[in-house]
Design goal:
single chain, 173 residues, alpha+beta, four-stranded mixed β-sheet, 11 strands, elongated
């Protein structure tokens, strides 16, 4: 009886420790044929928005600030909205935090050449084996320049400038 309990406890511990990696490996097999930062995209996050501003002036009016900026790097990825996949494993939505250098200010009090943190839903999943991305938005790339029309949001008592909505980013060529 003692051996059975030890075996069951050992299996539970293994699942808790390595279950997420197994899920990522399984997800890697159902790839969308797309890669993001070197890992297969295994999840597409479908989000619906109401009243998306399309006019440039409306974007500026509705945004917290507006500026042209250059993506310097990914600062971190935070994981939210945990959902139990099975009794031992939780899957999270990734939110990528980028460091962006302001090149030109359009609205607000941002200083040129200063850096801000921009958040975008989607990114590398928790165990670094796959990615989940939001359908229909521009995916930020290092060293590229964009027009940003972010909205300020609060997560875990910290403020972020969010650009998940499709109209909040424009490519600058």
């Amino acid at each position: 009886m003692k051996k059975v309990i030890i075996i069951v406890v050992s299996i539970i511990i293994l699942v808790l420790c390595f279950g997420g990696k197994v899920i990522d490996a399984i997800n890697a097999k159902k790839c969308y044929g797309e890669y993001y930062r070197g890992v297969p995209v295994t999840g597409m996050i479908n989000v619906s928005w109401v009243d998306i501003p399309k006019d440039y002036n409306e974007k500026i009016e509705l945004s917290e600030c507006a500026f042209i900026g250059k993506v310097k790097k990914i600062k971190e990825t935070i994981y939210r909205n945990g959902v139990w996949i099975n009794p031992f494993i939780i899957s999270y939505d990734p939110y990528t935090i980028y460091e962006v250098e302001i090149i030109e200010n359009i609205k607000g009090s941002n200083e040129i050449n200063s850096s801000v943190e921009i958040m975008q839903m989607g990114g590398i999943n928790k165990f670094n084996k796959s990615a989940s991305l939001v359908n229909g938005i521009i995916r930020l790339e290092d060293s590229k320049i964009y027009k940003f029309f972010p909205q300020k949001i609060e997560l875990d008592e910290k403020s972020y400038l969010d650009v998940t909505m499709p109209c909040l980013i424009e490519n600058v060529n």
